[in-house]
Amino acid sequence: MSTEPSHYHRHVAEQKRAAIIEAATRLFLDSGYASTSLAKVAEAAGVSKATLFKQFPAKAALFDAIVSESWKVDDVVSPPTGDLRRGLTAIGHRYVELLTRPGMAALFRIVIAELPRFPELGEAHFERGKLPYFDSVRRYLDAEHAAGTAELEDTELAATQFLGMISNYVLWPRMLLLDWSPDEASMAHVVDEAVLMMAARYGAITR
């Protein structure tokens, strides 16, 4: 007899995991990281404490999962090289989708609010969320440089510049303005302008 869980049991486990992560995010934001216990999360998620502890034996592990889930993208493969504008446009729109996901702004607020007491939350957010995504953009720029379609001496700086132009409009005002909600056309325009600036600065000159 196979010891592998059935499709049904895997589906149930995934549903419970999603409920736990959603409940924990809400409680962390409402009550703070320190005041939220795993028992409270289990109650809010509608699962037993045994079920929660089986998946997340510590609160830090649960927060790590929240970060990883929030930054996960379906398309992790970089665009093909050869067309810097097209590739950056695809990355830019994917970044907008990521930053405007429900709960992303809340996740940043949790980290910022709790950082003085729990610096490990900031480290987790950086190491398991922002850094892997940033590295994917840097690798794409490395590939364009290697292909001769971009002239880049510092791809880390270039990736910072590109993502910063987008997040400075899409995400960071949400940290101070609860009603900040630019429409899709405005965000698409920001991406287009960021791509044009990157292409003007780093695009290879063909002769």
Automatic annotation (TrEMBL):
Pfam families tied to this protein: TetR_C_7, TetR_N
**DNA-binding region boundaries:** 37-56
Q: Name one GO biological process term.
A: negative regulation of DNA-templated transcription
Keyword Transcription attached: yes
Q: Where is the HTH tetR-type domain?
A: 14-74
Q: Is the keyword DNA damage in the record?
A: no
* Family annotation (InterPro entries): Homeodomain-like_sf, HTH-type_TetR-like_transc_reg, HTH_TetR, Tet_transcr_reg_TetR-rel_C_sf, TetR_C_Proteobacteria
Alphabetic keyword roster: DNA-binding, Transcription, Transcription regulation
Q: Which GO terms describe its molecular function?
A: DNA-binding transcription factor activity; transcription cis-regulatory region binding
Which branch of life, at top level?
Answer: Bacteria
Protein name, per record: TetR/AcrR family transcriptional regulator
Instruction: Look up and give the organism this protein is from.
Output: Prauserella cavernicola
